[in-house]
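Hey, quick one: can you model this chain's 3D structure?
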Amino acid sequence: LKCFEALPPPRHRREFATRASAQTRNRSTLDGRAALLSAAAAAVRHLVSVGRGALGQSALMEAGSADYSRTLGASAAAAAARGEAPFCEAKVPYCTKHFPFADLVLDLIQELAPESQPPLEGLHKYCRRRGSSLRRRLTELWTKPNSVKGRARLLALHEAWGDFVRDVLRPHLGEEWVAFEKEPNIRVHFAQQKAPVSAHCDADHFHTPFEVNFWVPLIDVDGSESLWAESRPGAGDYHAFEARYGEAVRFYGNGCQHFTVDNATQRTRVSFDARVVRGSDVAHAGLVEGRSIRGQKFLTEGPSRFRLFGYYGVMAADGELLDADACLARGFRLRPEPGGGDTSHDTVAGATTAGGAPPQAPAPALASVLAAAPAAPVRPRSTSPEHARRCALEVGSAREAQRLCARCGWLANRERILPRLVYRDSSGALVHWVAECPSAEQPWGLGCIPCAEQARRSGGAASACGCPFANFGFGRAAGGRRQPLLVKALLRHGNHAAGQRSEHQRIIRPNDAHRDAVRAFGGHQVDWVELPGLSGRASASAATALGEAEDDMSPGLGDVLAFGLFD
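Sure thing. Here's the predicted structure for all 567 residues.
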């Protein structure tokens, strides 16, 4: 409407209305708001092109961007919890003739493994033995091209990726400009291979919550060879992405757990993925400017490693902008307005006293936490032995049930996991923070007692933002499907992962919400070395056994119950 009213002559308003109605006549079969904005953008661009429009592109985006997603000025995580675009799952079709990514990536793979032949899904027939080496060398290609020919092939992929961002992803997001990951991550998951990526959220690795992930498979995927994710943060409805070559999958990887499982098919999956920040969100994303950080230093810089004009590039309608001056010349804001404050990151902080110290309170009783939790109108759940027996019969064996079902996996391995999931209360005693939902009238799930009590005191804000631990929903079956037990998610929630504790390699972001919830009751977190009966070396061995001595970009044993690696 703002675009429409700004067009002064009535004749031009009629032209605007004619073009808009022609493109939205069948909007009942489309997303009405997105279709209307697209039509408005097309109409105004036409008027501007013939010198008649009263609005430029920047004014168009100012008028239409808020209507497209209604997330400006609000937390991206909250928008994702509500399932708002673009912080939700969707498919983005594109033309493989204009963007022949499969051919370009195959050219790169043939540079590293000359014996490789098309199609990509048969790659395991030619270079299976060098699988780990191939993945590592594909990652290093951006900085270490092997030859002049390899550099040319890499440049061709880089140019195609930039064109894809400019012509497909940027219009899809309804933006005049975007910040995008300059070097997409190429992934190879060989047939009959163990899972190469364990469960994680990008927020665990200091990514800004305003990122939107785009995953581009280069073969048709629909099962164990695909990427798995939940539909929104905390939903727990893990499912494989189903897409064809020529479709990119958009999802909110910053807050949604995503991972791979063992590839039980006879097809090798090759894909690439990258992250994009809308131009209207860049000013609130807190991105620093600078050159790319690589190597060991990349692991020590925390959030500052994701730099604008280094890790991220800036793409406008006419191509990439190489520095801040070029952005400012076009009116693209890279920082919040001076004095305007930044209200884009709505967080739920732990209660503190006037002096800044957390108030002392007794540790919450599980019964009191559950008494305040809303009861779900479901049938009484089965007992643990009955559930384990029925689940084993349905999937064929107890071992398979432990791999596929979070409840069965927890029942079989909780004695090995529980000693790690503790904190010290105000008296210094070790207390388990994790518990099963004890109400027989609610579905089974795991929860965090301090976080649940903190959510209750704050009126359920943490639960509303998608934290499954606050409502004892972690591992709960969703959508009629069993869900695997993701051990690393448990460890990271309690700040027990090695990458969260290290002062030298800040690989994984600490869970401040859990830390504040524990402090609110006079407790403090426990390191591995504090656990009774474990020396420092034994603690390190225990951490390695649970797959926490790695950066989550390589195969680990942390999600052993999910992937059948926990004997």
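One thing worth noting: The chain has 22 helices and 18 strands.
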